[in-house]
Specification:
Helices cover 38% and strands 17% of the residues. With 325 residues, it is an alpha/beta fold. The protein has a single domain (26-324), classed as TIM Barrel (Alpha-Beta Barrel). Bound molecules: ligand PBG. Ligand PBG binds at residues 120, 122, 124, 132, 167-168, 203, 206-207, 219, 275-276.
Length: 325
């Protein structure tokens, strides 16, 4: 490396064509996954107040939105179902006529092979207490919960999901799901594990959207402590050993170091989830005119790619895809 005046970094920044030719990171609609919410028995979509541009969808508006997203080149959708009826075990999560199964089948039917239909697998939207598993007193009982996750995975697989994404952060969840899928003829169905999911305050708007806030306590006894990165690498190693095909870090923006570490250490397909609070924060500032929505969004998504994410799960997917195409 030579110094100034021989090396002048500004030479390669002098025009848009030079900058484009020498960009180290790319961002395209095919790198993006759009999360979508569908609520049972809704006639019309209901706007989510803390997430401008997002809705609790009806089945009809859900399939239409999924079709439009894929038409814009987005890689696929990640579905969250909100059931009309909840119980202590979250049994609607695996009911064959449950909202997530019905929605997965409807979206798969609409998209065919044009885009991925990813099933989020968790219990918090389905339990009447809002925790991500089955309770024993005030704690989530790990092993009964992963048995239930296995049942949910089979129900989602039978409904046509292309990819199962377990987000509950129970120990052994990937292995339990893999075994349940393999035992029911779904050995070719891949698992995208929420491997390093942190107990984050940035999930707030999502809990309004998915109606899945815990009715007591918090999730710190199962989701990760934001202080830790070595632990994230152990979580990823476990999930891969249990058969995960791809892994995820969540949230994205405060955790770009984790994304980078996971990608470098394992070299597996890695997704990062740009979560609801990250979206709402940017949108709130943009609404006030404090930042430019388009530039801030593309910069944010590009940064997540630069950190090492192959896929970015983001509520900005639709607009970003429009801007990028
Ligand atoms: C369910 C789940 C959550 C999110 C995705 N899956 C909420 C939580 O763990 O409380 C958050 C997504 C977001 O904030 O966009 N376990």
């Amino acid at each position: 490396m030579t110094g100034f005046p021989t090396y002048r970094p500004r030479r390669l920044r002098a025009s848009a064509a030079l900058r484009a030719a020498f960009a180290e990171t790319s961002l395209s609609p095919g790198d993006l996954i759009a999360p979508l919410f569908v609520k049972e028995a809704l006639g019309e979509p209901v706007p989510i107040s803390s997430m401008p541009g997002h809705f609790q969808h009806s089945l009809e508006s859900l399939t239409k939105e999924a079709r439009e997203l894929v038409g814009l080149g987005v890689a696929g959708v990640l579905l969250f179902g909100v059931p009309a009826r909840k119980d202590s075990e979250g049994s609607e999560a695996w009911a064959s006529a449950g909202i997530s199964q019905v929605a997965l089948a409807a979206v798969k039917d609409e998209l065919g092979d044009d885009g991925l239909v990813i099933a989020d697998l968790c219990l918090c939207e389905y339990t009447d207490h809002g925790h991500c598993g089955i309770l024993d007193g005030d704690t989530v009982a790990n092993d009964p919960t992963i048995a239930a996750y296995g049942r949910i995975a089979v129900a989602q697989a039978s409904s046509g999901a292309d990819l199962i994404a377990p987000s509950g952060m129970m120990d052994g969840q990937v292995g339990a799901i893999r075994a349940a899928l393999d035992g029911t003829g779904h050995d070719q169905l891949p698992v995208l594990a929420y491997a390093a999911k942190y107990a984050s305050s940035f999930y707030g708007p999502f809990r309004e959207a998915a109606e899945g806030a815990p009715s007591f306590g918090d999730r710190r006894a199962y989701q990760q402590d934001p202080a830790n990165v070595e632990e994230a690498l152990r979580e990823v190693a476990l999930d891969l050993a249990e058969g995960a095909d791809a892994v995820m870090v969540k949230p994205a923006l405060g955790y770009l170091d984790v994304v980078r570490a996971v990608k470098q250490e394992f070299g597996y397909p890695t997704a990062a989830y740009n979560v609801s609070g990250e979206y709402s924060m940017l949108m709130a500032a943009a609404e006030r005119g404090w930042i430019d929505e388009r530039q801030a969004t593309l910069e944010t998504l590009g940064s997540i790619r630069r950190a090492g994410a192959d896929l970015v799960i983001t509520y900005h997917a639709r607009k970003a895809a429009e801007w990028l195409s």
